[in-house]
């Protein structure tokens, strides 16, 4: 297992080709997918043939960045994933933070804990100067995580065409950001 980082309660590691079932199970919970697909599960073949190969290829393309599996240090239960990665054609010193956790892991502070460690690594070790995150305006839990990370609301976003049927689509999305300077001063 290739450990990416450790926090007080979590271990983040690279995904491997054997991890499709973890991702399929995560994306099959309507509550997890509520503000992503409107609750619809991701098709297993899409996870196997597109998502997982893309995640694994990303480790080579952008060393140090990517999407990582999170497990509890105590017992090893799969918690979900976090990502820190540049936009496809964006600057390499900026990255997007993201997270998707199993419902059983919600409400324990894990999203905040994993994200804090990623921001620290991104700014202190990976040379990032800004980290941003986006979510549906209605996704209060995700917004709260961004606020607890000292990220600032920097703008609103239109709902992507393929998310127009998601609950709250009419309210659009929000973008939060934090600079290295702000992170160090928080
Ligand atoms: C959003 C998500 C990552 C939060 O994970 P988590 O580990 O429960 O988050 P944390 O415990 O670190 O913090 C959540 C905060 O939001 C608050 N919160 C959670 N749900 C909320 C809601 N519906 N309304 C308002 N606040 C909410 C919590 O009370 C907590 O704040 P607090 O510490 O001030 O009490 C998790 O629910 C998830 O994976 N959801 C499904 C996928 C998703 O929506 N991902 C984000 C897409 S951009």
From TrEMBL:
Domain of life: Bacteria
Pfam family, one: Acetyltransf_3
Alphabetical UniProt keywords: Transferase
Boundaries of every N-acetyltransferase domain copy: 10-181
GO molecular function annotations of the record: acyltransferase activity, transferring groups other than amino-acyl groups
Family matches, as InterPro entries: Acyl_CoA_acyltransferase (IPR016181), GNAT_dom (IPR000182), N-acetyltransferase (IPR051531)
Protein name stated in the entry: N-acetyltransferase
Species per Swiss-Prot/TrEMBL record: Streptacidiphilus pinicola
């Amino acid at each position: 297992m290739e450990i990416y980082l450790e926090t007080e309660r979590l271990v983040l590691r690279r995904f491997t080709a054997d991890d499709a079932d973890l991702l399929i199970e995560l994306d099959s919970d309507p509550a997890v997918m509520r503000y992503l697909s409107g609750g619809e599960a991701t098709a297993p073949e899409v996870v196997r043939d597109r998502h997982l190969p893309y995640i694994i290829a990303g480790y080579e393309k952008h060393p140090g960045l990517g999407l990582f599996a999170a497990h509890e240090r105590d017992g090893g239960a799969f918690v979900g994933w976090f990502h820190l990665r540049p936009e496809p054609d964006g600057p390499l010193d900026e990255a997007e933070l993201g997270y998707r956790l199993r419902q059983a892991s919600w409400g324990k502070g894990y999203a905040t804990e994993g994200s804090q460690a990623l921001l620290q690594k991104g700014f202190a070790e990976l040379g990032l100067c800004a980290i941003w995150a986006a979510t549906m305006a209605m996704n209060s839990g995700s917004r709260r995580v961004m606020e607890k990370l000292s990220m600032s609301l920097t703008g609103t976003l239109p709902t992507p065409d393929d998310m127009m049927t998601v609950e709250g689509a009419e309210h659009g999305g929000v973008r939060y950001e934090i600079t290295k300077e702000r992170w160090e001063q928080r």
